[in-house]
Amino acid sequence: MTEHARVPGQLPGELTLRRPTPADHPRLRVALAEWWGGLGGEAGARQRQLLVPRLFLQHFADTSFLVERPDRTLHAFLIGFLSQTEPETAYIHFVGVCPEGRRDGIGSALYDRFFATARTAGRSQVRCITSPNNRDSIAYHTRMGFRLEPGDRLDDHGVPVQEDYDGPGLDRVSFVREL
Ligand SMILES: CC(C)(COP(=O)(O)OP(=O)(O)OC[C@H]1O[C@@H](n2cnc3c(N)ncnc32)[C@H](O)[C@@H]1OP(=O)(O)O)[C@@H](O)C(=O)NCCC(=O)NCCS
Fold first, then answer.
1. What's the structural domain count of the chain?
2. Residue 9's pLDDT band (boundaries 50, 70, 90)?
3. Pocket-testing residue among 49, 65, 136, 177, ligand 1, by greatest number of atoms within 8 A of Cβ
4. Domain containing 122: what range?
């Protein structure tokens, strides 16, 4: 973590923000494997990679962001889109900040950008889901003003879990935030 004055919605230091392109796909795959602290082992890494296929960089680039360091290496990213089915909804599919860049306002800066993009597009709520075992993600989303949606059961931490949400054994926690 670097020392600097945090300005809501702004990136610190020399970091730059841009839209992703399909050429960014290989390094996003590396980040998806390496930035989740080994969550789910090799199968988890593979699952995350397959959840962000190239199509997101081809067809959802206008609502997605990539943060780079001065040397152009990847620092953070957000993959999001506007729901085609629910005109009031925007959806954050994946977010990641490199392990050494956390708790420095980058995640919230990316979310603030996405919220602004969604508001400009007339959206009034943002949705996302996460795995029940991703405690960091649950803490972060709660801090970012998301509400936990009701589940089928409460886990050991009192978090409502929707069982088999994405298939047998693939439980999820669902969040919504008004804009
Ligand atoms: C979740 C993640 C994106 C947060 O990014 P970040 O840049 O560290 O978040 P920020 O520094 O902007 O934090 C925003 C707020 O959330 C809080 N927060 C962030 N991570 C937290 C954690 N693990 N536990 C508790 N609070 C947390 C911060 O304290 C901050 O609150 P504050 O404004 O009161 O200080 C980052 O930890 C990450 O990439 N994790 C691995 C990937 C992942 O799990 N992604 C989410 C699921 S797709």
1. 1
2. low
3. 136
4. 16-178
